[in-house]
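BUG: 3D viewer hangs when loading the predicted structure for this chain

Environment: internal workstation, default settings.
Expected: structure renders.
Actual: progress bar stalls at 90%.

Input used:
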Amino acid sequence: MSEVARDVTDAEFSMAVLERSKEIPVVIDLWAPWCGPCRQLAPLLEKIADERAGEFELVKLNIDENPEVARLLGARSIPLVVGFRDGSAASQFLGVQSESAINEFIDSILPSQADQLITEAKAKISSGEGVMAERLLNNVLELDPRHEVARVSLARLLVEDARYEQASEVLSPIAVTGGEEVTTLLALVQLNLADDVDLSSLETRLQADTSDLEAAVALGKALGAKGEYERALELLLDAVKQDATFQDGAAKQVMLDIFNVLGAQDPVTKDYRTKLSLALF
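Structure tokens produced before the viewer hung:
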């Protein structure tokens, strides 16, 4: 076994490649003793691994002895070289390549400057250094304005610091294209963007006039921001039943925001989504 390339087996693949690639990129060389091109490629891979030690790890897998991983990676021909990062395959090439081409391949699987800053920012968040993390995340967005992980991480920091308007601005560019976490954060931000309200005053208004939909919507939103979701949803549902079109469907929209915060599988979401559908249709 080479000093710079570790042999791995089917049984070791998950830990040695998939899990390890979450810490450092891993390049796996699929080969066999009878394969002439494999013997040509191996010295080049090992030379580059030695020269770029610390940037990635090189492992080798004999497909004759370890057919499961070869099947998993679709190795119909060899040598097949696959680069892994963050637990999944990032790129690959087949056959013998030049040294410059292999170096370009290695470059393609290494974390970008933005990715490195994200890693640093997450470490700062874990250690409670929010100010430094925020600075790093803003640096990422200067490099890549649409970096979703950076925007979500920064928005989460801002929400924790009750800077909801800033969080909304950060999430705005990915509001449509972002994933479920973006939807959840946006909903949470919307709930908390409510103007400062006097809860007791709103409750008094509703007690005096149950048809005061302005008070009902404002109170429902404020209660949602406080995490009193079921109470908020009950008030908002009643408002929808009275007039679903009030303020362009404001009560319904706040209910949808609360559903997004709770998540689609939450029992409260399921219960009140059904009740909302019945009220509307």
